[in-house]
Design brief:
SH3 type barrels; eight-stranded antiparallel beta sheet; 3 domains; five-stranded antiparallel beta sheet; Pantoate--beta-alanine Ligase, Chain: A,domain 2; alpha+beta
C-alpha cells in the first residue's frame, strides 16, 4: 500500500503484521510521509490479533504494543482491517494465547509421534544397556521440573546439605546413595556424593562442592521400584534382568511394585534385621509376569551386610523361574554356623 492509499485510511481501522512479534489491530491516526523515505503510520493500538512466536525461548515473548499505545509503524506492515476483530485488548490476548497454545500443542504432538517412532525403531536393534535406558526415557515426555528435584548446596557447621528450591526441604548428603547431576560450566554432569563435600563424576573426576552449587536428581529415584532396584546388589539385579528377558520383559514394562523393604527401612530406624516379600507386576503385549521377591537383610555396623534374595517369576501362561542370590558375607556367615 502506497502513501496515497494510506491517506484514505486515516481514522479507519488497520492491522499491523509484525511477523514473529505478533499481529495487532488499531486505528490509523496519521501518516508520516517524508520525501524519498518509506512512509510510516501512527496507529493507536486496540487489540492483539496474534501472539508473538515463542521459538523455544527460555522467557515468554510478550506483545510489543500495549493497549492505547500510539505506535509508529512502517507502512509495509500496515493493511486495511477486513472482517471482525476483538475490540478489548485483554480479551484479545486470551484468544491469541489460545490460538498459539493450540498450534504449539499440535506441533509438540507431531514431534512426539515422530520421536516415539524413531525410538521404537532404534530399540529394535539396541543392545547397549545405557543406550536402551536413555532411549526409553524419551518415551515419557516430561518437563525438567516434572522430571527432576532441583537443589542448592548448603554447608552447616561442616555438614553438607541440599535444599530443595521448591519446598525448602533439606536432604543430608552424607551417606546419600542417589545418582545426582551437578551443574558444571552450564552443563549437568552425573555423579555421586562421596564425603566431606567431594562429588565424583561418572567419568572419574572429583569436584569439591561449594555453597549454592546447583544439583538435580531424577524424581524416579524415589519411587518404590527404583529404590528396590537400588537396594539389590549388582549380581542379584543382573540375575533378575536376565530372568525377565526370558519373558521379553524389561523395566519399562513395569505395572506396579509393592516395596515392603522400603517401608521397613524407613519406619524401623533401630532395627537391624529385615525380612519380607515384595510384589512386582510387569506387562507386555498382554503377557503378564508377576515377581515375588523374598528378601532377608542383616545390617552390620562394621562388617558387610548379610543379604539374601529369592525371586519367583511366573507368567500368565504358567512359565516359571526361580532365582536366588546370597552375598559373600552371608555365605561366610552360614559356613561359620
Amino acid at each position: 500500500m502506497d502513501r496515497i492509499d494510506a491517506q484514505k485510511l486515516i481514522n479507519k481501522h488497520v492491522v499491523i503484521d509484525e511477523k514473529a512479534n505478533g499481529g495487532y489491530y488499531g486505528k490509523l491516526i496519521d501518516i508520516i510521509a517524508e520525501p524519498r523515505k518509506p512512509w510510516k503510520g501512527i496507529v493507536k493500538i486496540i487489540s492483539v490479533t496474534s501472539f508473538p512466536e515463542q521459538n523455544h525461548c527460555s522467557s515468554l515473548q510478550l506483545p510489543i504494543y500495549s493497549a492505547g499505545e500510539k505506535a509508529i509503524v512502517l507502512g509495509s506492515k500496515i493493511s486495511p482491517a477486513t472482517g471482525t476483530y476483538i475490540e478489548d485488548y485483554n480479551r484479545s490476548i486470551l484468544f491469541a494465547i489460545k490460538d498459539i497454545v493450540k498450534k504449539l500443542s499440535e506441533q509438540q504432538l507431531s514431534a512426539r509421534k515422530q520421536l516415539i517412532q524413531l525410538v521404537q525403531f532404534a530399540l529394535q536393534s539396541a543392545s547397549d544397556k545405557a543406550v536402551i535406558e536413555e532411549l526409553n526415557s524419551y518415551l515419557t515426555f516430561e518437563t525438567e521440573e516434572e522430571r527432576y528435584f532441583f537443589y542448592e548446596v548448603l554447608n552447616e557447621e561442616g555438614q553438607y546439605l541440599l535444599v530443595n528450591r521448591g519446598n525448602q526441604q533439606l536432604l543430608p548428603l552424607e551417606g546419600c546413595p542417589f545418582l545426582f547431576e551437578l551443574e558444571i560450566d552450564n552443563e549437568w554432569v552425573k555423579g555421586y556424593y562421596l564425603e566431606d563435600g567431594a562429588f565424583k563424576t561418572n567419568d572419574g573426576k572429583t569436584k569439591k562442592l561449594t555453597i549454592d552449587d546447583r544439583i538435580r536428581m531424577e524424581k524416579k529415584q524415589l519411587n518404590p521400584y527404583e529404590l528396590l532396584l537400588k537396594e539389590l546388589e549388582q549380581p542379584a539385579l543382573d540375575s533378575l534382568e536376565r530372568s525377565l528377558q526370558q519373558f521379553q520383559i524389561g523395566h519399562e514394562h513395569l505395572l506396579s511394585c509393592h516395596n515392603t523393604l522400603l517401608s521397613q527401612l524407613v519406619n524401623e530406624t533401630k532395627q537391624q534385621k529385615f525380612s519380607g516379600t515384595n510384589f512386582i507386576l510387569y506387562e507386555r503385549d498382554n503377557e503378564v509376569v508377576s515377581v515375588q521377591h523374598h528378601y532377608e537383610r542383616l545390617l552390620k555396623e562394621v562388617e558387610n551386610d548379610l543379604t539374601y534374595d529369592r525371586f519367583e517369576l511366573t507368567s500368565g501362561s504358567g512359565k516359571r523361574y526361580i532365582i536366588t542370590y546370597t552375598n559373600e558375607a552371608s555365605k561366610r556367615a552360614n559356613k561359620n554356623n
